[in-house]
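Purpose: get a first structural picture of the assembly so the mutagenesis plan has something to point at.
Setup: two entries, given in the order below. No constraints added.
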Amino acid sequence: MKPIYLDYAATTPADPAVVQAMIPYFHDAFGNPSAIYSYGQEAKSAIEKARSTIASLIGARDEEIVFTSGGTEADNYTLKGVAFANQKKGNHIITSAIEHHAVLESCKFLSKIGFKITYVPVDKYGLVDPDQVKKAITDKTILISVMHANNEVGTIQPIAEISRIAREAGVYLHTDAVQTAGHIPADVNELGVDLLSISAHKLYGPKGVGALYIRKGTKLMTFMHGGGQERGRRASTENVPGIVGFGQAAELVQPELDVEMIRLTNLRDILITGILNKIDRIHLNGHPVKRLPNNVNISVEFVEGESMCLNMDMAGICASTGSACSSASLEASHVLLAMGLDPVQAHGSLRFTLGKWTTEEEINKVLEVLPRIVTKLRAMSPLVKK
Amino acid sequence: MYNAKVMDHFNNPRNVGEMDSPDGTGRVGNPVCGDIMEIYIKVEGSIITDVKFKTFGCGAAIATSSMVTEMVKGKSLEDALKISNKAVAEALGGLPAIKMHCSVLAEEALSSAIDDYITKHPEKNSDALRILRKTPHHKEE
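Result (structure tokens, whole complex):
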């Protein structure tokens, strides 16, 4: 039996229509988009079509979309690109304590070469307070980067409010919309951002491709130098099949957005309510309402996350955890710790993220299996005192 | 990530539970690092006749604590102190490098239980035991 996949925040299966759309561009329409002859022009036209679809997904102009190798590159490009291009203006960047590592590590790198970073804290729900962002702004601030919604706990940030503050101060605003584009409305003008990162494999597209939205007029330094592709902003022969797949994924996800939001929110809430009813000493992480429609993140007292995930895997269910034991760095989730969870609660966290192919039956299976797993692990836990 | 033997010990851990009046209790690890192990031993003469454990931790943490209790049951205190973390990992058929620290914790939980026993029964502290207890012999590898 196929496993029940509930880790859509980590990656998503590409839609079969996406795969079909990509295939011709490997062997048949395989040309280099920079070539004059028809193979090349065919490829060029395909990527421009994709560019247009992706632009319309986020309310941008076609020429404001630059293709990258994914969300991580888009984040790196933004942080480093804005930093280096605006050094004369200032050297201060504001971000939040719960950003994805692609943003945090880029900031860490920049702080080692003379840039000052302010990490705005979050409240117990993982929410950034726009006032705290405002207070942190100085005349040396050149960029604010706050993610649209957090990948671990699903909390949706007040980007539009932060944008008003950024605009007033004349500071660029970037948002990592990797978890939101295609899933909840993520319009660059409604949000009021200058830069926005997206990733194809989070919206049923292929891995290895993403995009950075760059509002016309934004100053940022190019990172990938070479053959001048993407109007000189990001050299490299374009990943044509990937970009075509990305475009197809964006086209599929747009019309379904509202319906999917309702459907997933409903399934999410069935799962949350079910878990809270069936198991005691459980805590929901993240904001109860300002939350991604597909995100369930809980802390289970007295048991550890990786052992829960292993048990879930044996029961045919794919989930993830914020436990240190399951991370390459052996550190517990920085997001949960920033929200004020103590280390044990962070180690005992379990995340389920739902998606296009999630059914109510699958949710019910989790509700059947999880209580048994928790009972079994609590029976061997030294933290349960008789 | 884990081989079949590790998964077996994870799924069907040996000697899980509490003990009425253990002769020695060892507790290692801490909430910050995410692994906590408790080992309880019953000693008759100088033989560990019974052993139980409880662990809060990942697959490797549970498997190594289970394995160490299996290895130590029926052994003398001296032989028990000679069990290294490497031996525990080997008995499990190997662990991913990033999980080797769990085997160190299992070894430490055991020696901590023995230390506790000796503290309560100092007359049992033979020269051999004294030397073994002083020698740190675990290597992470």
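Chain B touches chain A at residues 2, 7, 10-11, 13, 16-18, 27, 31-38, 53-62, 98, 101 (CB under 8 Å).
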